[in-house]
């Protein structure tokens, strides 16, 4: 499933955008993205796919199409085991951007699957997220974040101390993308941290969505295919809510809509 979803994202990200009628949604307006706007997601999609590869193939930048379609970055730092600890890598691109990519669920690992179904909401530590009263995160995702936080911070610090930071990920890695990007923006307030995630599940409560929106603003976005169930989990009645920044891929597979607000109902 993971490879199918990533391939779908990569294939559709390079297609032209068809003209679409406006669709009414809750909270805010909808904007049909241009081909050039969609192309900005192509490299992040390849980077998100690369995070599933073992660390040694990332270090040699020899992880198949995901690496082959991206210029080899510098200063690669890797971590994780693909089971209880998500795989990740930090590197620096030729334009000076620090890139962090975090892998999603390893569907062959019971430990990895267990992270996804550890649903209870738990309060966050203000050491990681200052001024976060009332903020709660999915217990499994929060635990996964804490297991990679130290290594990622060291990896980011090992790169140049300036320039933008781009965080990408798919599925479970997409949830961790949002969490980690928010954390890094607090750690490096003078730098611009951008989160681009693919098929993220909901990662926290409304207070968390508010916190993300205030911290990252327009620099967070998540791409969702209409046929994917993962972004609808955990269910909203369990007090989970997505942050802003949704980009919806319509049923025709060629139309991408940037949806203002949060949790916008979709007309397929």
From TrEMBL:
One of its GO terms (biological process) is lipid metabolic process. Belongs to the AB hydrolase superfamily. Lipase family. Class 3 subfamily. Residues 99-236 form the Fungal lipase-type domain. The lineage of its organism: Eukaryota, Fungi, Dikarya, Basidiomycota, Agaricomycotina. Residues 1-19 form the signal peptide. The keyword Signal applies. Pfam families: Lipase_3. This is Alpha/Beta hydrolase protein.
């Amino acid at each position: 499933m993971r490879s199918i979803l990533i391939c779908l994202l990569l294939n559709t990200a390079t297609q032209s955008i068809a003209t679409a009628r406006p669709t009414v949604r809750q909270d805010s307006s909808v904007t049909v993205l241009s081909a050039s706007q969609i192309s900005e997601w192509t490299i992040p999609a390849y980077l998100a796919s690369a995070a599933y590869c073992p660390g040694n193939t990332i270090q040699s930048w020899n992880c198949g199409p995901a690496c082959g379609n991206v210029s080899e970055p510098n200063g690669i730092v890797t971590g994780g085991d693909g089971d209880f600890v998500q795989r990740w890598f930090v590197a620096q691109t030729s334009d000076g951007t620090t890139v962090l990519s975090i892998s999603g669920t390893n569907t062959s690992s019971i430990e990895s699957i267990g992270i996804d179904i550890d649903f209870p909401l738990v309060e966050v530590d203000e050491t990681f997220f200052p001024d976060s009263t009332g903020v709660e995160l999915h217990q499994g995702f929060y635990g996964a974040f804490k297991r990679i936080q130290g290594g990622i911070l060291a990896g980011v610090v090992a790169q140049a101390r300036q320039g933008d930071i781009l965080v990408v990920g798919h599925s479970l890695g997409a949830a961790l993308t949002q969490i980690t990007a928010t954390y890094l923006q607090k750690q490096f307030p003078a730098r611009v941290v951008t989160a681009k995630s693919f098929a993220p599940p909901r990662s926290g409560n409304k207070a968390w969505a508010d916190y993300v929106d205030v911290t990252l603003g327009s620099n967070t976005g998540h791409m969702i295919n209409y046929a994917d169930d993962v972004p609808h989990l955990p269910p909203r009645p369990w007090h989970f809510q997505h942050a802003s920044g949704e980009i919806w891929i319509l049923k025709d597979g060629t139309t991408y809509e940037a949806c203002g607000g949060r949790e916008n109902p979709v007309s397929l």
